[in-house]
Amino acid sequence: MKDSYGREMTNLRISITQRCNLRCLYCHREGEASPGEEMTPEEISRLVAIGSSMGMKKLKITGGEPLVRDDILEVIRLSAKYAGEVSLTTNGVLLPDLSSGLKEAGLRRVNVSLDTLDPDTYRTISGVDALERVIEGIRSAVSAGLSPVKLNMVVMKDVNSSEIDRMIEFSRDVGAVLQLIELEAPRERINDGYYAKYHYDLDGVEGSFASRAVKIVPRDLHRRMKYFLPEEVEVVRPMHNTVFCANCHRLRITSDGRLKPCLLNAAGMIDVLGPMRSGKSDSQLAGLFHRAVESREPYWR
Ligand code: SAM
């Protein structure tokens, strides 16, 4: 299925909770402002089945923090029946006890948020003293055979921007792949608070990677670049990036069951959980997916 800009819909990103055990200073909360009731594992997997039947076979489970849900293994197990590939993004705090179970439930790969290797900086960013736990979680994910394990580092000026080389080495040593993420915000927040203070332009970093990489590979999703230095480093640059939007193949679903065409755009969400709970059929729900896809607009163009 394609949207009206010819973008093939291949990815579904579902937030399963807005609860979180960290308080990251930059968190965009997956574009959700005031979440309602969470979906059950059965409801989530029904939406996965509908999305998958329309071509969205790559599923990313996110939050809030998805691992705070007691039924996370059930969410993965049921969703994995319908998705081609299930991945999850987590802050890693609860990962040490869950990696093996997640793998057995059908999780293929995982992204762990790790912005710094310095305990004080970690506490400043996340509000919690949990760096060691997260590193233990990363090691457990690698041992459990989740592959690849990607480390999401949101790069922030004067906070962690000097740690990129150290993070590349750490990722290599632990058996993970580093993903550098540009700090993002919707247009209306660009001039306020944390964004203006912390946004770090990744131009210089990418230029230096490009000059020394042995191989550069663009990904289909967002045309993100993967640099092999030879260590693999992926760079995600969503801000003011028309190429990023032109290659966005992702539909989102909020934790309270609304189809969300774009992370940065708060408008145009379509409730799918209400109609599901009131007894609508799969084909009626698929009609809502079609409406959401048809309404998609590139945020930057
Ligand atoms: N709690 C989970 C986690 O830490 O991965 C899942 C939710 S979190 C919102 C998903 C990803 O979005 C994390 O890697 C996080 O670092 C990233 N993220 C959150 N706010 C961001 C922002 N303003 N700019 C760029 N990335 C952001």
Which terms would index this structure?
12-stranded mixed β-sheet; binds S-adenosylmethionine; alpha/beta; 11 helices; 301 residues; 12 strands; TIM Barrel; single chain
Number of separate domains: 1
- Give average pLDDT, whole number: 96
Radius of gyration from the alpha-carbon trace, in angstroms:
19 Å
DSSP, total strands: 12
Under CATH at level 1, the class stands as: Alpha Beta
CATH topology value: TIM Barrel
Q: Which compounds are bound in this model?
A: S-adenosylmethionine
Q: Can you count the helices?
A: 11
Give the helix/strand layout.
Elements (H helix, E strand, L loop, with lengths): L10 E5 L25 H13 L4 E5 L9 H9 L4 E6 L8 H7 L3 E5 L5 H8 L4 H14 L4 E7 L8 H11 L2 E6 L10 H6 L4 H10 L2 E4 L6 E4 L3 E5 L5 H5 L3 E4 L4 E3 L9 E2 L1 H5 L4 H13 L7
Parallel strand pairs: 1-2, 1-10, 2-3, 3-4, 4-5, 5-6, 6-9
Antiparallel strand pairs: 7-8, 8-9, 10-11, 11-12
Helix pairs in contact: 1-2, 1-11, 2-3
Describe this structure as you would to a colleague.
The chain is α/β, with parallel strands linked by helices. The protein has a single domain (11-294), classed as Aldolase class I (TIM Barrel, Alpha-Beta Barrel). 34% of the residues lie in helices and 19% in strands. It has helices at residues 41-53, 72-80, 99-105, 119-126, 131-144, 164-174, 193-198, 203-212, 242-246, 273-277, 282-294; strands at residues 11-15, 58-62, 85-90, 109-113, 149-155, 177-182, 215-218, 225-228, 232-236, 250-253, 258-260, 270-271. Helix 1 runs parallel beside helix 2 (72-80), helix 1 crosses helix 11 (282-294) and helix 2 (72-80) runs parallel beside helix 3. The chain starts with 10 loop residues before the first strand and ends in a 7-residue tail after the last helix. It binds S-adenosylmethionine (SAM). Residues 20, 26-28, 30, 62-63, 65, 89-91, 113, 152, 154, 181, 183-185 line the site of S-adenosylmethionine (SAM).
